[in-house]
UniProtKB/TrEMBL annotation:
Keyword entries, A-Z: Phosphoprotein
Name of a matching Pfam family: Response_reg
Source organism per UniProt: Pedobacter gandavensis
Residue positions, PTM 4-aspartylphosphate: 63
Residue stretches making up the Response regulatory domain: 6-133
Matches recorded under InterPro entries: CheY-like_superfamily, Sig_transdc_resp-reg_receiver, TCS_response_regulator
Domain of life assignment: Bacteria
Protein name: Response regulator
């Protein structure tokens, strides 16, 4: 596998995105980060590139609360298109929600690998990237 890991951050919180990118850089893991400020923007990118594995992310970190298309709506749509995407993508929900209902709801989506409560810390990020190798 290519050592460069591609990450998609789907989150409308610019402060969180900035801090997460800074944490990723401090982890010294070779990454490329694509930012999407809502689920629709990310979904359109994935659909447009579903046959181009080189530009698709290895990992998606998805927020739940966003304008235009929230994380739940994204998951509904992504579940439909995921079989036609020519790359296996690992998806994590990263949310500030501590609601047991949200956690349980996330378990209804087979495409969700885990539910992480914000912020994503460096140790967990390194573990996720190590699992890709």
């Amino acid at each position: 596998m290519n050592s460069l890991k591609k990450i998609a951050l789907i989150d409308d919180d610019s402060t969180y995105v900035f801090l997460t990118k800074r944490m990723i850089k401090s982890a010294n893991i070779s990454t490329q980060i694509d930012e999407f400020h809502d689920g629709l923007q990310a979904l359109n990118f994935l659909k447009a590139n579903q046959n181009n594995a080189e530009v698709l992310p290895d990992v998606i970190f998805l927020d739940l609360s966003m304008p235009i298309m929230d994380g739940w709506e994204f998951l509904e749509e992504y579940t439909e298109v995921e079989p036609s995407i020519r790359k296996s993508i690992i998806l994590y929900i990263v949310s500030s929600s501590i609601s047991p209902h949200d956690f349980e709801r996330s378990r209804n989506f087979s495409v969700v690998s885990d539910f992480i409560i914000k912020p994503l810390n460096k140790e967990r990020f390194i573990q996720i990237m190590g699992d890709l190798s």
